[in-house]
Structure formats: structure tokens, C-alpha cells
Specification:
Oligomer: single chain
Keywords: Oxidoreductase
Organism: Eisenbergiella tayi
CATH topology: Rossmann fold
Pfam family, one: adh_short
Shape: globular
Family: Belongs to the short-chain dehydrogenases/reductases (SDR) family.
Bound molecules: NADP nicotinamide-adenine-dinucleotide phosphate
Number of helices: 8
Distance between the termini: 51 Å
Number of domains: 1
Helix content: 40-55%
Number of strands: 7
CATH superfamily: NAD(P)-binding Rossmann-like Domain
Largest sheet: 7 strands, parallel
Radius of gyration: 18 Å
Protein name: Short-chain dehydrogenase
CATH class: Alpha Beta
Order of helices and strands: EHEHEHEHEHEHEHH
Strand order of the largest sheet: 3-2-1-4-5-6-7
Structural class: alpha/beta
């Protein structure tokens, strides 16, 4: 369909940008959104140069109250139809909980949880009516275990994983697929300002490839890289207490 678009949040860098480049290459029209308008315009030019696609840029701070609704209304105003939603925008705070700026942690919850949930909610209506659509929610290796010294971040990503898997069951008879993608440590701006506990980093393109394989197999969850698989395994084989001890030591050493 000519007016059908893939909406990618946080498309200005990292994993979101890699999704935009790959989907653009495949001839998908895109709505790319983030706060950095200049980076979105540059990405639009780069994709349109080599591909016959339409790229719409929408500048939006999705950590602001009510912003998901504003984004949805802007998409409707432009008469665009979204058949693939990639809820990718997100960030992490690190440090001892009560010493970490609360405003930042509140924004983290608004971006990672509230906007992701509201966009999914608003766009599902249309997808269900057409009995066609895909929602890809970017969770994390941190979705599987509590993570001391990044407690709010891991809790937001546990939410993303739980919500997405539950909805994938609810909507299986509506023609809509939902997939939670759990990247491990990946080489993006995500780690600007703090260290990673992982010894090797994945590339954003690896996450995109893993996502595509999982979609083809009809999965509701996928992990990218051995670091992430190890986190998932830990949550399965260790008791909650042991897993917390292991994660706590790592968290304290890295960000405490
Ligand atoms: N990199 C990793 O190791 C890793 C591991 C697991 C999960 N993840 C998840 O992967 C997703 C993408 O992160 P990344 O690694 O690609 O990091 P990144 O390079 O920092 O990209 C984050 C993207 O989110 C956007 N964003 C940040 N705050 C925003 C806001 N308030 N409103 C709208 N957009 C905002 C940024 O754009 P602007 O700054 O232009 O707004 C940027 O496009 C996140 O959900 C992250 O939690 C990453």
C-alpha cells in the first residue's frame, strides 16, 4: 500500500538508525522520529538517495507527558498508515537509586514504558481493523533479572518484555504480530557516559538481523548475542536470590 509506513522511534542513532537503513533498503516507507531533527533529516537524505521510498521526519521528545498522543495525531494529520511499529527509543540511568537524579529516572519511565505502551495501544486499533501489523518492542538483556545500580532501567525493560509477550498472545487471532527484542551490549551511544559490563559489543546491524529471523519464525521474543543469552539462562537456572547476588556484584563494580 502506497501510504503504508514503518514507524521507528529513536531512529536518529544506534539500533533505530540501523532499522531505518535496512527497512529503507527494502523499499519500506518510513516515519522516523527522535529529538534530533538534524540527524533525522540527514538519515532521510541518505535513505532517499538510493531508494524509492517516502521518509517522514517527526521531531518529538517521547519522554514528555502526552507526547505519544501528539505523535499519533501528527501521523493522522499527515494521513499516513502505520503497519509496522518499532518502539526503539530508550535510555538507561546508572548509579545508586536515591543519588541518581529523579527527574531523569522519571523521564526514563516515561520514555521506556509510558510512550511505548501508548503508541502500541493507539496503533493496534488500526492494525486490528486491517488484520495486519507488526509491533517490535526493544527490550534488553536487562529484562531478565533485577539489576542493582541500574534498577529503574532493568525494571522498565522487564515491563517491556512482559507486556509484549502478553500482547503477542492476545493478538495472535487479530493478524498482528508482537515481538520483544532483547539486545545484549551493542555498540551505540547507549553507553556514552558510563561503562559496560560486557567484554565484547554487538553491532546495531546484528540486532536487526536477529529481529528479522525471529519475525520469520513467528517468535514473541528474541535475544541477540551470547551476553544476552547468558542473562536469560541465569534467570532460568539460578534462584532469584543467586541471580540478584551475581547481578548486584556486577552492577556495583561497574556503576556503583
Ligand atoms: N546499546 C545497547 O547495548 C542496548 C542493549 C539493550 C537494549 N538497548 C535498547 O536499545 C534501544 C536503542 O538504544 P541504542 O542502543 O540504539 O542507543 P542510542 O544510540 O543512544 O539511541 C537511542 C535513540 O533514542 C532516542 N531518544 C533518546 N531519548 C529520547 C527522547 N526523550 N525522546 C525521543 N527519542 C529519544 C535517541 O534520539 P535523540 O537523542 O535524537 O532523541 C536515539 O535515536 C533502547 O531502547 C535501549 O534501551 C540497547
Amino acid at each position: 500500500m502506497e501510504n503504508t509506513y514503518t514507524l521507528i522511534t529513536g531512529a536518529s542513532s544506534g539500533i533505530g538508525r540501523a532499522f531505518a537503513l535496512e527497512y529503507g533498503k527494502r523499499g519500506q516507507n518510513l516515519i522516523i522520529t527522535a529529538r534530533s531533527g538534524d540527524k533525522l533529516q540527514e538519515l532521510k537524505r541518505e535513505i532517499e538517495k538510493d531508494n524509492q521510498v517516502s521518509i517522514e521526519c517527526i521531531i518529538m521528545d517521547l519522554a514528555a507527558e502526552g507526547s505519544a498522543k501528539l505523535l499519533y495525531e501528527e501521523i493522522r494529520k499527515r494521513k499516513l498508515h502505520v503497519d509496522v511499529l518499532i518502539n526503539n527509543a530508550g535510555f538507561a540511568t546508572k548509579g545508586l537509586f536515591h543519588k541518581t537524579d529523579y527527574k531523569r529516572q522519571h523521564e526514563e519511565m516515561l520514555l521506556n514504558i509510558v510512550s511505548l505502551t501508548e503508541l502500541t495501544y493507539l496503533l493496534l486499533e488500526d492494525m486490528c481493523q486491517k488484520r495486519h501489523g507488526t509491533v517490535i518492542n526493544i527490550a534488553s538483556a536487562a529484562s531478565f533479572n533485577p539489576l542493582p545500580y541500574s534498577a529503574v532501567y532493568a525494571a522498565t525493560k522487564a515491563y517491556v518484555l512482559s507486556l509484549t509477550q502478553a500482547l503477542s498472545f492476545e493478538y495472535q487471532d487479530y493478524g498482528v504480530k508482537l515481538l520483544a527484542v532483547c539486545p545484549g551490549a551493542t555498540d551505540t551511544h547507549f553507553f556514552d557516559g558510563f561503562k559496560t559490563a560486557a567484554s565484547r559489543l554487538r553491532m546495531p546491524e546484528d540486532v536487526v538481523r536477529t529481529t528479522e529471523k525471529a519475525l520469520k519464525k513467528g517468535k514473541s521474543i528474541c535475544t541477540d548475542g551470547t551476553f544476552c543469552k547468558a542473562q536469560m539462562l541465569l534467570s532460568r537456572i539460578a534462584s532469584r536470590k543467586s541471580a540478584l547476588g551475581i547481578m548486584g556484584k556486577t552492577g556495583r563494580k561497574t556503576w556503583g
